[in-house]
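Whiteboard transcription, Tuesday session. T.W. wrote the structure tokens on the left side:
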């Protein structure tokens, strides 16, 4: 057995306290023990039981192991050459695609910031069933489409409506 394969282990459980290095309960070198784990700057994760880890001895002492990498092939996603993704066991992900796109998948997405700027020639919102609708923005001219509703605040300026209209409400 090579020294590297001897330092491969299986995660049993993890802990992560704010401001502290995480701990991992793992079976490495035939023994189950709690080890300190190091994570890359800016990234924090709490792997689930069954993930795989690699540990290195500190100062060459195999009694003092530090877990340096934890991965879980059960939840890895297929990527093209050069792509990058963050994903978890629930199917949530942020995927930087080879074509230059960014795919974000999650049950809910929350953005908290001072100012959010979206620059796009067309903005489409999904309806949850695979269909998409164009977002109408200030200054857009809508022709040949069905305008479902306008809400969210006062409407200023001229409003021109052509075609059949079932209800127009202004306040």
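and on the right, the sequence the group agreed on:
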């Amino acid at each position: 057995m090579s020294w590297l394969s001897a330092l491969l282990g299986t995660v049993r459980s993890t802990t992560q306290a704010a401001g502290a290095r995480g701990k991992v309960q793992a079976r490495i070198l035939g023994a189950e023990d709690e080890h300190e784990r190091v994570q890359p700057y800016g990234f924090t994760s709490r792997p689930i039981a069954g993930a795989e880890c690699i540990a290195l001895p500190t100062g060459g002492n195999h009694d003092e192991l530090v877990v340096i990498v934890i991965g879980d092939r059960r939840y890895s996603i297929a990527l093209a050459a050069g792509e990058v993704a963050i994903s978890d066991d629930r199917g949530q992900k942020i995927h930087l695609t080879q074509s230059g796109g960014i795919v974000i998948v999650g049950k809910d997405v929350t953005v908290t910031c001072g100012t959010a700027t979206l620059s796009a020639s067309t903005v489409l919102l999904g309806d949850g069933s695979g269909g998409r609708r164009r977002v109408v923005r200030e200054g857009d001219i809508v022709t040949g489409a069905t305008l479902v509703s306008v809400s969210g605040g006062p409407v200023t300026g001229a409003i021109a409506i052509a075609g059949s209209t079932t209800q127009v409400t202004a306040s």
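Someone added at the bottom: The first strand starts at residue 8 and ends at 15.
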